[in-house]
Amino acid sequence: MAPAVERIIESIGRGDQDTVQLLLDSYNTQYAQCFFFNTEAQERKKQRQLEKFKRNKIRDHATDSDSDAGSDDEEPDLLLRQDLAAALLHFVSGQLQAAVLRVCLHTLRILSRDRRALGPMVTDSALCTLAHLGGIELLQTCPKKDKEKAEDSLARKQTDWRAISECETVKTSPVSTVFSESIPTAVAGLPTTSNSSSTDNYSYNWKGAEGQVVLAPGKKDIREEDSEEEKKEEDEEVCKKEAIKVLCNIIYNSPRAQERASTLRLLQGLWESLKDAIWSSAPPSGQFYKLRLLFLLTALRPELRLQLQQEHGVSVLTKALEQYLAVRWGEGYEVIIDDTAPPISRETSQDITEILKTLFNIAHKFHRKEPDEEDSALYRHLAAVLRCCLLQSCDGEDTLEELQGHTVNILSVLPLACLDVLLAVPMDQASHKCEGINMDCVHAMLMLMDRRLNRGQKLKEKLTPVLNLLTESSRVHRETRHYLRQKILPPLRDVGVRPEHDGTLRGKLVRLMTHVDTDVKDCAAELLFVLCKENVSRFVKYTGYGNAAGLLAARGLLNGRRNSVDSSYASSYSSDSDSDTEEYREARAKINLVTGRVEAEQPDPMEGMTEEEKEEEARRLICIINRLSRDQIIQPMGVTAEGRLAPLWNQMRGSSEEEDEEDEDLNPMPERRNGKQME
């Protein structure tokens, strides 16, 4: 690798664009899929550390003389990558051919994946250069110190590279990036003209008082010029995208770059560029990487989120969503969904996804805040557009799920009072409805939850937002709660199956109530509890006491009575009763409340025992539990008057002396009494 990189740097120093393009094409092909450099060296370093650890475990005073042995093996490659990055950054700041510029930016994108080699890329001059190449005009001029310093360094190192170029082989250690300051400018190619006698390519145009004949281009030349112009625009667009990709990698991988980008007001320049595209009459296209950069900046820098909010980011990005979705408005906040429209393509969905992620960054702080009249109208307008995102068809199930998932993320942080527009829309024959209310959005979220439950991957990241949104919506909207209860908690009929073994939505959610992740467990239990209108007996009926104990203990409801803290929720629920099926009423007396199903009859373990034997067995069990609790192997708990669990230390410490005597008799190990060994 090292000789190839040195040759590239040497060619850059000479300003040989053709050679640079040829060498970089080979380099990019070799490392196109490389995201981790020097993996073999890193493995060798880990192996040395492991061997050193083993030696230190054997010898108390192991020498550290070889602790850094071989550490220089990976350093030359790292320094060469840094030198190559610095050389390319200075190279692309001049005028290059479009193909050369594109391949240089591609190489920079590969190098920007390595966090250790980002040093030359996080300077102000480098960020300004990449922003300019990406079509972003910074509102703050880059300081000249970095540029002058780089030029002085280049002038000092030119002679070094001339000496290197005269050598046949290079065995010295890499030096700082140096190359020629004089970079040849690209000469615009002139269209090739054919013989002037060809009347197909030229026409005569008489012009001027003296009758001077002017040869005007014909139709074929006009077509060639248009084709060349289009190709030039395509090349410029490709180069802009490559520069933005490099910026995205640098911003993502370097906190220093994030800080400098904030100081250089990169967000403002990027925002102005995006607004020009959003407010133009042309349909949006080719903005994905700029939108990705906008998301990264707002995700990594809190002050930039505030700046974008002050720049009316929500309204402008909502306008962009309308353009991508081709929204047609009805009355009020009604968005007309065209079922005959073609599905959203994957490319369009990616742009929409980046907009949704940025909207989440700048709107999440408004969750559960009471908005004023202006903000309320703004977020209702946004919620109406998000309804279109939920119900729009997409090209592929994965694309649809990703789009709906990010839509749910935003809806879960908007003020609940603004989500009424999701239900206040007319119905058609294909609509899902409940009590005369359109439930298409709720049904779409329910299906999204079901798909993610079936996949079982990244539940905390993917499932908790939709669970929280359905829970909060069920608390606020009675119709939503009734519809979800019909789909998730229908009247019980099969009481012979444990709730967590059921294959329905209820069973899937009950299984999550004992999940190892507490956030997932709490969200699933909370949704079922709200669908039961926070009634303890009804909650235990559908989930079983064993599964419900976690939520009931956390809320202080183990005694079955509603806690005063939760009394505010009780007033928001209607007073309709839970109707039981005939099958449930017949089996109610046989249902085990702990497991939530009818259990098979078990033989009585005390059958045939006398009353004295039963009493003796009970006292023996009490002594065993007492001993286990004293040794802190178990901790007996009880339910207090407030409905919470509390340890039973006082009761256990009040054991009688007679129980202690029996405890000693039960212990088979020899013990000491009165200071003497019992044998």
Q: Can you give me a brief rundown of this structure?
A:
The protein is mainly alpha-helical.
Describe this structure in words.
By secondary structure, the chain is mostly helical. Among the domains are: 2-38 and 74-166, no CATH class; 260-491, Leucine-rich Repeat Variant, CATH 1.25.10; 611-671, no CATH class. Helices cover 57% and strands 5% of the residues. α1 packs antiparallel against α2 (17-31), α1 packs parallel to α4 (75-92) and α5 packs parallel to α8. The termini are far apart. 32% of the residues are buried.
Structural class: mainly alpha
Largest sheet: 2 strands, antiparallel
CATH topology term of the domain at 260-491: Leucine-rich Repeat Variant
Number of strands: 12
Poorly predicted ranges: 60-74, 154-214, 669-679
Return the average pLDDT rounded to an integer: 78
Number of distinct helices: 29
- Percentage of helical residues? 55-70%
Basic shape: globular
Per DSSP, what share of the residues sits in E-state strands of 2 or more residues? 5-15%
Distance between the termini: 79 Å
Using the 3D structure, state the CATH architecture of the domain at 260-491.
Alpha Horseshoe
- The CATH class of the domain at 260-491 turns out to be Mainly Alpha
In the sheet with the most strands, the strands line up as 1-2
